[in-house]
Amino acid sequence: MNPRSGFCKSNSTFYSKRKPISLPPYHSLDVTTFISSHHHHNNDKIAFIDASTGRRLSFGDFWRAVESVSICLSDMGIRKGHVVFLLSPNSIFFPIVCLSVMSLGAIITTANPLNTSQEISKQIFDSKTALIFTIPQLLPKLPSPESINNVPIVLMTTDHSSSDHQTLEDMMKKEPNDQTIIVKNRVTQNDAATLLFSSGTTGVSKGVISTHGNLIALVMGMTGRFRTHEKDQIYIATVPMFHTYGLAAFAISLVAKGCTVVVLPKFDLDEMLSAIHNFKVTYLPLVPPILVGLANNADLIRKKYDLRSLRYVLCGGAPLSVGVMEEFKKKFSEVTILQGYALTESNGAGASTETLEESRRHGTAGLITPSTEAKIVDTETGEALSENKTGELWLRGPSIMKGYFENGEATARTLTSDGWLKTGDLCYIDDDGFLFVVDRLKELIKYKAYQVPPAELESLLLTHPEIIDAAVIPFPDDKVGQYPMAYLVRRSGSSLSDFAVIEFVAKQVAPYKRIRRVAFVTSIPKNPSGKILRKDLIKRATSSL
């Protein structure tokens, strides 16, 4: 193996240059038990702070709540393999629900609160949900009780008069006693723990199954990325916990490391800055559009908020341009930008920069995650390539998903028989072992780090009686990264307007999936097999920028 790049000529594999992680040897182990016993926390230390109310949960309170909720879930009949659906904005209770569910060997599945009723209903039906956690404001988005066999609903609220549903607050007050029995089946590291849905380019929603072992490996590999080895760090949860990024960081890894997290119920730039100011936050995980906002408004921000406590920014969810990084560093010279690359399917595995020196290597996503292997594969020949050659990135390691939920065909397309995950990203690894993301083979549009599948929107557009063909592409935008733009062929004689199209789509999808720009054409460019030539349309759309 080349010690500089990590590349091994004999098998054309890149090996991580990071210190390997030491995984627990016990086969029978759930991630909640691992997290609670991995570190001996100071029970009086604050685990979570609600930025909007100031409510605080100590680690002692937190773990007592996890135990109490686990008891109640067991009493309600939740068992190993059952799926529990969690629909909520960020909350100090979010991690309690996740860890309680997983402690029983049940599976947690999360959803974006912005999703439509139709999208939420589909996920509940597809995952065969046995129990739902949500907040009162989101109850109208749930399917009718009769249509889901009266699946129990627990409200994450402190208001006992809001409805007849049981509340999480009541569950957290459950005190174990000598007669308490938790019915808990044997849970192994290979059992499913989370089911996170992400749409593919076909428009078919795919559930990513991650195991307890995947999440344990995630926790073990997060120390450097989240600076958890440094004392007195205070983190702020800006990215959504329903997303793999937020779930991995705030509901799992930082709990394991005994870190204090300030939780923003919903993202608002001023509220985030106020929370950093008030709670002396040192570490800010975010996505590129937030970084852009900070850089563009730095002078105004510094006049209003004291951000001197801030030491690190971790940017993930989408690539960060060199220009944006330079502008931010010019305005916030005392803050170190760290970057990370991962997928839902890789559970945090990918690459990251962990030091100031590494972050100065412009354009890189960082060094390969500890105990993870990588290949760069030629998309035409299937040949594994060496340093500085571009191809599709493949990853293999202990964090890689088990597969897609009830979708063997998609699993076989994405996971090889010997465990390699085909990421769908065009990358290269340089002479020093740093990963660079060049382009996406996948056609997903990245709106504020949310994934928007073009095929889903195209299918919807084709249901309009005046549209006979459609193509949706990503249109670049400094504030949100990318947004969906539609090229449409109108039916002969139609005078359909772009505004009417935008309204038609907006009524049927979550806000982040909305079409923001429309162009009418006489035909959609396609290859001989009928596949849309999106690159041609992207070039056309951006030629005047």
Summarize the topology.
Layout: E1 7-8, E2 13-15, H1 31-38, E3 46-50, E4 56-58, H2 59-75, E5 83-87, H3 94-103, E6 107-111, H4 117-127, E7 129-134, E8 153-155, E9 166-167, H5 168-172, E10 192-199, E11 205-211, H6 212-221, E12 234-237, H7 244-256, E13 260-263, H8 269-279, E14 283-286, H9 288-296, H10 298-304, E15 312-315, H11 322-331, E16 336-342, E17 350-352, H12 356-359, E18 366-368, E19 373-377, E20 384-385, E21 391-396, E22 403-404, H13 408-414, E23 421-429, E24 434-440, E25 445-447, E26 450-452, H14 454-461, E27 467-477, E28 481-490, H15 498-506, E29 517-520, H16 534-542
Parallel strand pairs: 3-13, 5-6, 5-7, 7-8, 8-9, 12-13, 14-15, 15-16, 28-29
Antiparallel strand pairs: 1-2, 2-19, 3-4, 10-11, 11-22, 16-17, 17-18, 18-24, 19-20, 19-21, 21-23, 23-24, 25-26, 27-28
Helix pairs in contact: 1-7, 2-3, 3-7, 6-7, 9-11
